[in-house]
Write a structure and sequence with these properties.
Elements (H helix, E strand, L loop, with lengths): L2 H11 L15 H13 L4 E6 L20 H5 L3 E6 L5 E7 L10 E2 L3 E3 L7 H17 L8 E7 L12 H6 L6 E4 L13 E10 L3 E2 L9 H16 L5 E7 L6 E2 L2 E10 L2 H26 L6 H10 E7 L11 H4 L26 E4 L16 E3 H20 L4
Parallel strand pairs: 3-6, 3-7, 7-14
Antiparallel strand pairs: 1-2, 2-6, 4-5, 5-15, 8-12, 8-13, 9-11, 10-12
Helix pairs in contact: 1-4, 4-10, 6-7, 7-8
Length: 406
């Protein structure tokens, strides 16, 4: 990375860009988009789109429930940007997201390593993409003349939004290429497929009680804790499952009659989605029956056992999203190693390219979500790995151009 790239990344890292699903703090995504667009103009990019999403994008049936009750001010602070260099076809597209998780962490650079929220996910890769394209333009004047390059810089990737108001409307507006690279940490291996995920919310809505007479209430903690273990045992053999948040309350001197358990399940296509959905529904029924049988003769939990089925419900917080099927991408085979076949895929905004005619799509980026502390304290990105990614981006653009967009 040359000096201006480092300055650009530090500037982006200095801007808090976690969206309203992550934090109530001020969101600086408009400023981040402007900063990135200004830097891209020096490479020759023009702004093809810069706007907040239209409210209609949240009225679709597959939009996650976390977005059902947001107001117009929610979307107003989460713009997305499309930059274009050269013709619209043939074109290669790079997708980066400038929104981050919370909490914000201040930027830093020690000469070899960047620190700060978004360093690896995904402000660092965004700057590396720009550097790689600049190098491709310098190496071959056909880049941006005979073939085009698009950059989507989006909001709405984090927080459970699943790209429904960021990447999806851009793809549906035609802002994609013959080759599409989604920049997420993959250890510089390209992933030519993506799972989608569904989220089940198991709710218990019963009566509270005081700690002196716990038998008078419904104990949602015991019921949901039992169901969490039952579902974990039953669903885990069927695929990638995350038994996630369980919440009833925080005090020691009461019985909580209400609570929620979240279970997230990945799938790689419509058939596996149906299988996981049915397994969740069946597992809940058998879990409730087993709980009632086990605790009906225990005085403290008799009422909970007797009413378990009546006070427990299943709601899908997220369901119906597409998965990106596996595909062959010879151009990338010639440049970078592929994702190991025995490792599971993961979910990202690349799912919205599923079914787009003529579009080859892969996930590729530097670092690792775990090893680089993305979504955790101390997120970082090493200059050396960002530079390697820049070189890969350069090679992708050059090979795409010299192959005539094939």
């Amino acid at each position: 990375m040359i000096g201006p790239d480092r300055d650009l990344l530090l500037r982006l890292l200095s801007l808090p860009t976690a969206g309203p699903l992550e934090t109530t703090a001020e969101v600086h995504l408009w400023e981040a988009m402007d900063v990135f667009a200004s830097a891209a103009a020096g490479v020759g990019f023009r702004v093809a789109h810069l706007a907040a999403p239209e409210p209609a994008v949240l009225r679709r049936p597959d939009v996650p429930s976390v977005l059902h009750d947001v107001g117009p001010e929610f979307l107003a602070c989460q713009p997305s940007l499309v930059l274009r260099l050269g013709p619209s076809e043939p074109a290669v597209m790079f997708n980066v997201h400038l929104d981050t998780v919370a909490p914000f962490e201040p930027e830093g650079f020690d000469g070899t390593r960047f620190h700060g929220r978004g360093a690896i996910d995904a402000k660092g890769p965004a700057v590396a993409v720009l550097a790689g394209i600049r190098a491709a333009v310098a190496a071959d004047p056909a880049v941006g003349r005979d073939t085009g390059v698009l950059i989507q810089a989006v909001s709405g990737e984090e927080g459970g939004a699943m790209g429904t108001f960021g990447t999806r409307p851009l793809v549906e507006a035609g802002f994609h290429g013959g080759l599409n690279i989604f920049c997420e940490p993959t250890g510089l291996r390209y992933l030519p497929r993506c799972t989608a995920a569904m989220t089940a919310s198991v709710r218990v809505d019963g009566d509270d009680a005081i700690d002196d007479e716990p038998h008078r209430g419904h104990n949602a903690t015991v019921l949901l804790g039992f169901l969490a273990q039952h579902l974990a045992a039953g669903l885990a053999p069927r695929g990638q499952v995350c038994v996630a948040g369980l919440h009833t309350g925080r005090l020691h001197n009461r019985v909580y009659g209400s609570g929620e358990l979240l279970v997230n399940m990945a799938y790689d296509g419509a058939e596996s989605a149906r299988t996981m959905s049915a397994a969740m529904e069946t597992g809940l029924r058998t879990g409730l029956a087993e709980f009632s049988e086990r605790f009906r003769d225990v005085p403290l939990f008799h009422r909970t056992a007797a009413d378990a089925a009546a006070i427990t419900s299943l709601r899908w917080a997220k369901r119906g999203l597409p998965a990106l099927p596996a595909q062959e991408i010879p151009l990338l085979d010639a440049i970078v190693p592929g994702w190991p076949a025995d490792q599971p895929a993961f979910t990202c905004d690349a799912i919205w390219l599923a079914g787009v005619p003529g579009a080859r799509t892969a996930v590729l980026g530097p670092g690792s979500l775990g090893a680089n502390n993305a979504h955790a304290r101390g997120e970082f990105a090493d200059v050396a790995e960002l530079d390697r990614f820049s070189g890969i981006v350069r090679d992708i653009v050059l090979r795409f151009t010299r192959n005539g967009g094939a």
